[in-house]
Design goal:
Largest sheet: 6 strands, mixed
Shape: globular
Strand content: 35-45%
Number of helices: 4
Order of helices and strands: HEEHEEEEEEHEEH
Oligomer: single chain
Bound molecules: calcium ion
Length: about 190
Protein backbone atom coordinates (compact mmCIF):
# COMPACT_ATOMS: atom_id res chain seq x y z
CA UNK A 1 0.00 0.00 0.00
CA UNK A 2 1.34 3.42 -0.93
CA UNK A 3 1.22 5.98 1.83
CA UNK A 4 -0.43 9.25 1.04
CA UNK A 5 1.42 12.10 2.79
CA UNK A 6 -1.45 14.55 2.21
CA UNK A 7 -4.01 12.19 3.75
CA UNK A 8 -1.73 11.49 6.72
CA UNK A 9 -1.17 15.22 7.21
CA UNK A 10 -4.90 15.92 7.17
CA UNK A 11 -5.56 13.15 9.72
CA UNK A 12 -2.81 14.55 11.95
CA UNK A 13 -4.27 18.06 11.60
CA UNK A 14 -7.69 16.75 12.62
CA UNK A 15 -6.19 14.99 15.63
CA UNK A 16 -4.39 18.17 16.69
CA UNK A 17 -7.47 20.36 16.47
CA UNK A 18 -10.19 19.28 18.90
CA UNK A 19 -13.53 20.13 17.32
CA UNK A 20 -16.93 20.47 18.88
CA UNK A 21 -20.34 20.99 17.37
CA UNK A 22 -22.87 23.35 18.84
CA UNK A 23 -21.22 24.51 22.04
CA UNK A 24 -17.91 24.89 23.85
CA UNK A 25 -18.14 25.07 27.63
CA UNK A 26 -14.60 25.43 29.02
CA UNK A 27 -15.48 23.86 32.37
CA UNK A 28 -16.49 20.68 30.49
CA UNK A 29 -14.64 20.79 27.18
CA UNK A 30 -11.34 22.35 28.30
CA UNK A 31 -9.68 25.71 27.80
CA UNK A 32 -10.12 27.21 24.36
CA UNK A 33 -6.79 27.35 22.49
CA UNK A 34 -4.43 30.22 23.26
CA UNK A 35 -2.56 29.54 19.98
CA UNK A 36 -3.79 31.81 17.19
CA UNK A 37 -2.26 29.48 14.57
CA UNK A 38 -4.14 26.46 15.98
CA UNK A 39 -7.46 27.78 17.29
CA UNK A 40 -10.08 25.53 18.83
CA UNK A 41 -12.78 24.59 16.31
CA UNK A 42 -16.50 25.01 16.85
CA UNK A 43 -18.72 23.60 14.13
CA UNK A 44 -21.74 25.89 13.98
CA UNK A 45 -25.12 24.14 14.01
CA UNK A 46 -28.64 25.45 13.46
CA UNK A 47 -29.90 27.46 16.44
CA UNK A 48 -27.94 28.34 19.58
CA UNK A 49 -24.19 27.72 19.76
CA UNK A 50 -23.02 28.55 23.27
CA UNK A 51 -19.44 29.36 24.19
CA UNK A 52 -18.83 29.82 27.92
CA UNK A 53 -15.34 30.37 29.22
CA UNK A 54 -12.91 32.68 30.90
CA UNK A 55 -9.93 34.73 29.81
CA UNK A 56 -7.55 37.27 31.30
CA UNK A 57 -4.47 36.80 33.50
CA UNK A 58 -2.53 35.84 30.37
CA UNK A 59 -5.18 33.44 28.99
CA UNK A 60 -6.21 34.31 25.43
CA UNK A 61 -8.91 32.35 23.61
CA UNK A 62 -8.75 31.71 19.86
CA UNK A 63 -11.86 30.05 18.46
CA UNK A 64 -12.45 29.02 14.88
CA UNK A 65 -16.07 29.00 13.71
CA UNK A 66 -16.99 26.85 10.72
CA UNK A 67 -20.36 27.89 9.29
CA UNK A 68 -21.69 25.18 6.94
CA UNK A 69 -23.48 25.85 3.67
CA UNK A 70 -27.10 26.77 4.28
CA UNK A 71 -26.53 28.49 7.64
CA UNK A 72 -25.54 31.99 8.64
CA UNK A 73 -24.74 33.56 12.01
CA UNK A 74 -27.42 36.20 12.54
CA UNK A 75 -26.38 37.31 16.04
CA UNK A 76 -23.66 36.99 18.66
CA UNK A 77 -25.41 37.50 21.98
CA UNK A 78 -23.54 38.11 25.22
CA UNK A 79 -25.00 35.66 27.75
CA UNK A 80 -22.53 35.97 30.64
CA UNK A 81 -19.92 38.45 31.82
CA UNK A 82 -18.21 38.66 35.19
CA UNK A 83 -14.99 39.97 36.66
CA UNK A 84 -13.82 42.49 34.08
CA UNK A 85 -15.07 45.84 32.84
CA UNK A 86 -14.85 45.49 29.06
CA UNK A 87 -13.06 42.85 26.98
CA UNK A 88 -11.90 42.60 23.38
CA UNK A 89 -13.17 40.39 20.59
CA UNK A 90 -11.63 40.49 17.10
CA UNK A 91 -12.72 38.59 13.98
CA UNK A 92 -10.86 37.46 10.89
CA UNK A 93 -11.94 35.37 7.93
CA UNK A 94 -10.03 32.09 7.69
CA UNK A 95 -9.01 29.11 9.81
CA UNK A 96 -6.27 30.86 11.84
CA UNK A 97 -5.66 34.32 13.23
CA UNK A 98 -2.93 35.92 11.12
CA UNK A 99 -1.76 38.69 13.43
CA UNK A 100 -0.27 38.61 16.93
CA UNK A 101 -1.94 40.51 19.79
CA UNK A 102 0.95 43.00 19.91
CA UNK A 103 1.19 43.43 16.14
CA UNK A 104 -2.49 43.68 15.22
CA UNK A 105 -3.85 46.82 13.61
CA UNK A 106 -7.57 47.35 12.96
CA UNK A 107 -6.99 47.08 9.21
CA UNK A 108 -5.92 43.44 9.62
CA UNK A 109 -9.26 42.53 11.14
CA UNK A 110 -12.62 41.84 9.56
CA UNK A 111 -14.15 43.47 12.62
CA UNK A 112 -13.84 43.91 16.37
CA UNK A 113 -15.48 45.44 19.40
CA UNK A 114 -15.31 45.69 23.17
CA UNK A 115 -18.00 43.97 25.21
CA UNK A 116 -18.94 43.76 28.87
CA UNK A 117 -21.81 43.94 31.30
CA UNK A 118 -23.46 46.69 29.26
CA UNK A 119 -23.90 44.18 26.42
CA UNK A 120 -25.53 41.40 28.43
CA UNK A 121 -28.41 39.80 26.50
CA UNK A 122 -27.69 41.92 23.46
CA UNK A 123 -26.28 41.23 20.00
CA UNK A 124 -22.70 42.47 19.43
CA UNK A 125 -22.41 41.27 15.80
CA UNK A 126 -23.32 44.73 14.39
CA UNK A 127 -20.69 46.37 16.63
CA UNK A 128 -18.05 43.83 15.47
CA UNK A 129 -19.01 44.48 11.83
CA UNK A 130 -18.64 48.24 12.36
CA UNK A 131 -15.27 48.23 14.20
CA UNK A 132 -13.48 51.48 13.33
CA UNK A 133 -10.70 51.04 10.76
CA UNK A 134 -11.41 47.33 10.23
CA UNK A 135 -12.26 45.77 6.86
CA UNK A 136 -15.89 45.63 7.96
CA UNK A 137 -18.81 43.57 6.72
CA UNK A 138 -22.57 43.56 6.66
CA UNK A 139 -24.12 40.96 9.03
CA UNK A 140 -25.05 38.13 8.93
CA UNK A 141 -21.87 36.04 8.75
CA UNK A 142 -22.16 33.76 5.75
CA UNK A 143 -20.85 30.19 5.32
CA UNK A 144 -17.11 29.74 5.65
CA UNK A 145 -14.41 29.71 8.29
CA UNK A 146 -13.86 32.59 10.69
CA UNK A 147 -11.57 32.92 13.68
CA UNK A 148 -12.20 34.90 16.86
CA UNK A 149 -9.53 36.47 19.06
CA UNK A 150 -10.89 36.91 22.58
CA UNK A 151 -8.73 38.84 25.00
CA UNK A 152 -8.96 40.42 28.43
CA UNK A 153 -5.80 42.23 29.51
CA UNK A 154 -6.76 42.46 33.20
CA UNK A 155 -7.61 39.67 35.63
CA UNK A 156 -9.57 36.50 34.99
CA UNK A 157 -12.95 37.31 33.49
CA UNK A 158 -15.85 35.01 32.68
CA UNK A 159 -17.78 35.35 29.44
CA UNK A 160 -20.55 33.67 27.54
CA UNK A 161 -21.41 34.16 23.88
CA UNK A 162 -24.26 32.62 21.94
CA UNK A 163 -23.70 32.34 18.19
CA UNK A 164 -27.21 32.19 16.77
CA UNK A 165 -27.32 30.36 13.44
CA UNK A 166 -30.34 30.62 11.15
CA UNK A 167 -31.03 29.06 7.74
CA UNK A 168 -29.70 31.13 4.84
CA UNK A 169 -32.66 32.62 2.88
CA UNK A 170 -32.41 30.24 -0.11
CA UNK A 171 -32.10 27.22 2.17
CA UNK A 172 -35.05 28.39 4.30
CA UNK A 173 -37.16 28.34 1.12
CA UNK A 174 -35.90 24.85 0.30
CA UNK A 175 -36.74 23.66 3.84
CA UNK A 176 -40.24 25.09 3.38
CA UNK A 177 -40.63 23.25 0.08
CA UNK A 178 -39.46 20.04 1.78
CA UNK A 179 -42.06 20.44 4.51
CA UNK A 180 -44.76 21.07 1.89
CA UNK A 181 -43.76 17.94 0.00
CA UNK A 182 -43.79 15.87 3.20
CA UNK A 183 -47.21 17.29 4.07
CA UNK A 184 -48.60 16.29 0.68
CA UNK A 185 -47.17 12.78 1.00
CA UNK A 186 -48.90 12.32 4.35
CA UNK A 187 -52.33 13.11 2.89
CA1 LIG B 1 -9.96 30.44 28.23
Amino acid sequence: MRSNPAAIASVLALAATPALAGSWIESTNGDISGNRLSPSLLNITLGDNHVIGSFGSGDLDYLRLDIPAGLQIAAINVTEYSGGSVSFVGLQAGTTFSVSPSGASPGALLGYTLFGNANLNSNILPAIAGGSGALGFTPPLNPGSFTLWLQETAGTTGYGLNFVAVPAPGFAALLGLGALTLGRRRR
